[in-house]
Every structure is written in structure tokens, then in C-alpha cells.
Amino acid sequence: MSAGRDAPPQRALPVLADVARLSGVSEITVSRVIRNKGPISDKTRERVLHAVAETGYVPNRLAGALASADSMLVGVVLPSVTNIVFADVLRGIHEALAPAGYQPVVGVTGYDADEEERAVRSLLAWQPAAIILAGFEHTEATRRMLAASRIRVAEIMDIDATPIDVAVGLSHRSAGRDIARYLLSRGYRRFGYVGHDWDSDHRARLRFEGLTEELAAQGLALVAERRIAGPSSTLAGRETLAGVLATGERPDVVVFSNDDMAVGGYFHCLAAGLVPRHDIGLFGFNGLEIGAALPLRLSTVRSNRFLIGKLAAEALVARPDRPADTAIINTGYEIEAGETA
Amino acid sequence: MSAGRDAPPQRALPVLADVARLSGVSEITVSRVIRNKGPISDKTRERVLHAVAETGYVPNRLAGALASADSMLVGVVLPSVTNIVFADVLRGIHEALAPAGYQPVVGVTGYDADEEERAVRSLLAWQPAAIILAGFEHTEATRRMLAASRIRVAEIMDIDATPIDVAVGLSHRSAGRDIARYLLSRGYRRFGYVGHDWDSDHRARLRFEGLTEELAAQGLALVAERRIAGPSSTLAGRETLAGVLATGERPDVVVFSNDDMAVGGYFHCLAAGLVPRHDIGLFGFNGLEIGAALPLRLSTVRSNRFLIGKLAAEALVARPDRPADTAIINTGYEIEAGETA
DNA sequence: CTGTTAGCGCTTTCAT
DNA sequence: ATGAAAGCGCTAACAG
Description:
alpha/beta; HTH_LacI (chains A, B); Rossmann fold; 434 Repressor (Amino-terminal Domain); disordered N terminus; DNA-binding
């Protein structure tokens, strides 16, 4: 098993030319076989495929994309991947892209517009066929780059503004209003609010505005309101509800900025001996699995995140060039009655 | 505002040559300015940068990577992104790659080795500088491709086998044993186990094996064991614990395959009026935030997922070529005493 | 400090 | 059904 001194010590990776030589055809024929394009005789195809297997050839998509000016890549710019909400969206995107042969390339912003700009610039360098980003809050530079690129752009999660190209999501303002209506119909009158940072999570603010607008329309105002500076979390929800209940007027229902916060509120109730709905109503947003697993199912709003990702990706794939006018795809939401409000 | 008939109707995206022409230098000089490489006079740099801004030029990394044979891409193949555990790992990877100028490209397997093979093949086509994948269970074809590519390979999460190149993670078998030791030291003797699908989650099985091995060493065996077919979830944990407690011998402590399942168990206790630790011990794995937010902090094991991702990416970036021998980086774990066991 | 030349590995014409 | 030539947009290697 000793290597002769003329044995290639570090054989370079096989390229198209190697496969062509081995199968005795031209490079373009191999290319056609691999891409299933153009007419190829069965005999040739077989020979080429055999050579591909023998060499372990893996096509270089860098070169392929450059030559064909078609990367089959879709840039996806999300605030976070640790947040299950965006992870679900990503799953939906993946589900729609995979069968069409597209690959998502993800960038993360940490809820920061300048980071988003950096991510978009870096993704555009890969010549994606389209780009998906969350929300409408972009820097001017981001907008310019997107416009110049002329590729398709989906803005997702939110539909409460005019999109660059297509928006896919739900109206958070309208959801906020419906939460108010639902809780009013349940007999609640003294509303409290427990939320997290608005600067980064603009959609939470829209829901809050919808909520308070509808309350105002009924001549009501919040009796208690508390917002923490950082991101939402179960722990924060728990502690913040405790703070709210320790001082001032006692609400008969508390609306949380999302399910994470609301589940924390639930935990506080457990620890404090309060029975949700009986002693105090709790209402979330998103419809996460954890809420449904609680001893009392959390009352919340289902936000159809998977669907948002899927429909956004499908819309982009269906029409590769930017349409003349903008469009909005409303994925809706559903009030999940639950048992806590 | 009417467009003359000789107005360029669809100006193509600017390329290096356009910037070069506009700034009156050669393409390579522009390239050097953009990449901050080689000596450039301040005057030239300024002129070039000006032209870049004016044209809105965005470098084409497809072409750059092809020409330099260096993609600055790192393939990341994970079982799931919806699972917070892997999302945390991904954050760690991102944290280490970003400052070094590398871009992660993610593929998802859904806990399936054939899907992993497909993902690896597809990522390899982008000529990544390295690849990160979860665990040691790969198909033969995956191993062959990885070997042929000669790029660096990090296998993460687990260190209970011999890696292809470098493994980064913790010993799940050893963690299982330590869980047994800890619970024995707390006085528990009648152990129950509630778990999820092993075929997909090999590491859960390793923990189980460590647990039962250590129990056997003390002359003990599980008094109850139940595994569901599907993936772990809070709901599944809740229902499965209920099932276990409804029949047969009553354990004094239940070890869950992970925190998701354990939190579900906790919820069952709440609903059934059982007080954790007092009536029955509950023990999880991972150290998720949710466990710490429960009215009684969940007893569990911290698995340092962010660190796993970070160290894996750092190891790859630090040494771009495959070393002669394999290495193992142990990120360890810590028993989190909590209040439920 | 700047430029010239020659490709990277593939796909697009356009022939045959 | 197959191939030859040209070139995608960029960078390495060598001048100068």
C-alpha cells in the first residue's frame, strides 16, 4: 500500500473537465446531463453519470451562478433566530423554497436597522434572486440598495404600511383592536398592559396602539402599564406583572406584549396564589405551543408565522421579476380563547 | 419627465469595470481599495471610494470567491432551527464567524441522515471554507464527500465518539451518569424516565444510557419508563408524565429527556395538585430560560450551547487547513440544582 | 504604488 | 444530439 513517488499526493477536486475527459464527451454535455437540460442520448447520459459517480464530482455553484447569472439564492434578513417566532417563519420560507430549488441565506440583525443595512449589503453581494426582510423600518441606504438591485423584495410580519414590493403578514394594529373587543365582550373593564422594548419590536407597539385606541373608543383607558427596556422573556413577564400588581390600581385583565411575557405572568400568578381568569385575566400574543401546554390554556392570538414565511417565499418564486405595483398578502390571525381570559 | 428614446431603460448593475472607468484607474486597483489589500495612495483610494458611492457599486462575491478560490462561507448543518437549542448554537457560530469575515450558510436536516447528506452535498457546492454539523451519525456518502472536500469539519454537541476532524460539545453519557449521582445523593431511589424519540435524538439516548448505567452500578433499575415516538414538546411531557403516574409503581423522581419535556411534567404536577420535589422530583436537561422562570426553578443540566457554537467556529477559523489528527473540545456542563429535585 | 495578463469553473450562444 | 468559442466579474501573479 506504499504510494509510488509519482502518485498525486493532493489530487485537486475534480471539475467538469475531469468528468468530461473520463466520459469522453465535451464539458457542455456533462453540464447538460447534470442540469437535466437539453436533449441527451441515454447512452451518453449513462456514461457521464458513471464518470460523475467515479470521480465524486460536486458541481461548483459559485462558477455556475456566475456564468448563468442566476444564483438560486434567496436572502433572508431576520431580527433573531433565537426567537421561535422567526424560526417558524424561516421554516415556512424553507418549505416553499426547497421544492423550487432555491437556497435561503440568512442574515441576522438583532433588531437593529444599521445591522440590517449591513446584512442586506452583504447578502446582495451574493446576487440573490430575491430578498425577504422583516418589517418596514429600514435605513435610507437599505432602501437605495434594494431599489438599485431590482430584485424582488418581500417585507414580512407586518402589513400596516406601504411595501417596497410585496408585504406578507398581519395587521398588528387590527389585532390589538380585536384583543380589546374580545376582552370587553368577556366583561373586563380595568385593563393593564405589560410589555417589552418597543424601539426594537415595532409590531408590539402597533398592537398596543390598536388596543388602546379601541379602549378609548369605549371611553376606557389603561389602569396600569409597565414596559421593560429589554427584549421579552418569561422571566421579565413574571417580574413585571409582580411589579404591576404590587402598586396602584389592580387591573382585572392584563394584556401582555406576547406569549413569552404572558407565560411569565402566569407563573407569577401560580407563585402568588392567583387563579388566572378568576382573579385576573391574562392575554398574550402569538399562540406558542407553551401557552397551550399550561395547566390553563393561555388566551392569545394565533399569528400564523409558518404561513407568513411560506406565502412570502412562494410569492417571490412565482414571479422572479419585480412587478410594477406593490401588493399585500394578509395571512390573518385568530383569537385563541384559551382559559386565562 | 418624459424619457428620451435613447435613455437607458434598464441600466445594468455597475461592475468593477464601471467603477474603474469612472475613477480613472485599473480594475485591480479598485479591487484592492475595496478589499483593503496592498498599498494604495490616499488620493487614489479617495477617488475610488467616491466612484463606488456614486455608482452604488456592490461587489459580486460570486465572482470574487471563484477567482480567489476562497468563499469565506462556512456551511452549518443542523437538525432544526425551531429548536432553541440549535438556535443558540447558531448564535454562537455567528458570533465567532462574523468578526473573522465569514458567513454561515445553514442547511436543515429534520433529524434525518439522508437529509443531512443532501444538505452537505448542496452546501459543498458553494465551496465553503469549512463545515459544521451536529453529531457523529452520518451516511457513508456524507463521510466520503467530507473526506474528499478536504475542508475542515466540526462535529458538534457530542464528544462521545471519534470525530472526522474536531468535535466540540459535551459527553452526554457522562452527563447522564452525573444526573444519576446527583439524584442519588439527594436521596431519590425510585427513578422514572420520560423521553422522546431516540432514533432522531441520539444524544438523549446517550444520556439515558449514562443514567441507567450509573443506577445499575448502585444496584438500581428504573421503576417506570415511557418514551413517545415523536419529538420532545411541553405538551408531550405533560401527557406522558400523566400516563406514567397513572399506572404501575410510583417513582419518587422522574428524569426527562430534556427541559421541554420536564416543563410539561411540571405542568402536569400543577394540574394534578402534586408539589414538585415534595411529592415527586423532576429533572430536565439543557438549562433553558423557561425552566428558571417556573414558580419552582427546574432542576436541570446547563449544556452551554452558545459556547459550543462559538468554540467550534473559532477552532475552524483559527486553522483553515485540516490538521493531521483529530481533536476534542469539551465544553462541559453544570448541574443546576433548582427546586424541583 | 499601479497595471497587465491570465485564468477561476461553469454556462450561454451559435454551429453542426 | 453534441460541440467550440466566448465570457460571467473578479483576483493572483507577476511586472514595472
